[in-house]
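Handout, page 2. Input:
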Amino acid sequence: MHSAFAPASPQAHLVATLWWWMLGVGSAIWLAVIATMLYVTLARRGRRGPDDLQHVPDATRRRMERVVLGAGSLTVLVLAAFLAFDFSVGHALTQHPQRALTIDITGHQWWWEAEYEDPDPSKRLTTANEIHVPTGEPVQFKLRSADVIHSFWAPNLNGKKDLIPGYLSTLWFEADTAGVYRGQCAEFCGLQHAKMAFYVVAEPRAKFQAWLAAGAQSPPPPTDSTQLYGQRVFLSSGCAVCHTIGGTAAQAFVGPPLTHVMSRATIAAGALANTRANLMAWITNPQAIKPGARMPAVPLTGPQLAALVDYLGTLK
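Output:
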């Protein structure tokens, strides 16, 4: 789901309410202006004589002046009311809770890194492009950029927030409805800006806690001979230079962590569904899917590619 018209948090409800009021009042004013224009146009049809105000009776001129003055005053009042409404919504959105789950978000060209804070470093979980949150609880995001300006926007849950290099910004929301909500980078950040998506999975606390605990654990080592061969391919073919897989020698942080890659619904920051065929296509020629992406093509033989994908399929 990706729509600001289906708010799933109190914060998104505030934004949507402000928007609907602006649309409604603006539409009413537009209709009033159009109706007045049509009335004046039709009223003048068939009449002859000068149109300048010097030939307009004094009573009519004073009435016209009062109408103009009233319309101007009403415009000022409407703008002042919306200014106050806008400030009240903005103030409510910036009142960060004192105690909340905190997730560090880093925007990269063109994917999202998410690290769940925990006082115990061994319990910190780092994932990519798919963010799980508990429903009914405030979640705070600390937003950073690793390269250029990005913008974190999950329209069902809150407004957008820019990630500016060298600057820490924050955003929070409280998902009140379980579901999967699509997010998107909302600030042009390069060639593959349109393919820099993420998903927020809002779920009950028990389910979220189980996901968090499982995510903090390293996957069991493969026992199947094909999968073992696939792991050796991963560690020796260059994949380990960019990616992390818990419990292995692959501990690089250039690209998205892959410890539990098969638990995600998509790969390549939402560009592809996470299927075996798409995974093979992405490894073979990522530039055909996301031109300009920093993922290079990995030159593998057919058996090597099949074994590698078999191994990645165990990372759940």
